[in-house]
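Researcher: I'd like a structural prediction for the single chain below. Treat it as a standalone chain; there are no partners to consider.
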Amino acid sequence: MSKLHLLIDTDGVVFNINKKVIDISNEENNTNYDYKNNTSWWWGDYTKDTNCGSKKYFENMLDREGFFRNAEIIEDSVKYINKLYEEGHEITFISAPHWTNKTFTTDRIEFLKEHFEWFKPEKNLILTSRKGICDGENRLIIDDYPSNLEQFRKAIRICYGQPYNKDYKGCALRFEKWCEIYNAIKIMEKGEK
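Model: Treating it as a single chain, here is the predicted structure.
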């Protein structure tokens, strides 16, 4: 099998948006909630368990200038993405923007430049809420949001495991660690199932 073109989501796959949101909420609301305990989309468990915040609160947080500039990295994501790039894979980050955040695009570009020396926005970044338009043969999509994965029919799909997608039963493989994703890609390259 030839090298796969890798389409990699950013938030929840490389950029630990969930930890950042809960850390800010904990600080602002004087709570001590562990982001790993949130098993629902839009931080619904945090809202329910702490009686703090709301979907609107989180939407406003995501609108803050500079929000997407930095966050803790998902463990081993940078290491394995760089390794896959060095091994000859074409890599495109595909991200659904928070459209009302005025600095989202520059924040995202600066974040990716900081962690990936080879990254060029004009070549390695697609910003769209309709990720399925990037579907195609010899492609592999890695995303944490099941509805994004379901937009793909031809590409190989990998669901990056997060607490809020633990019950996912769709057509994608699901892995919780980047070393597992890397090993799966290596097996696919050999043509094994």
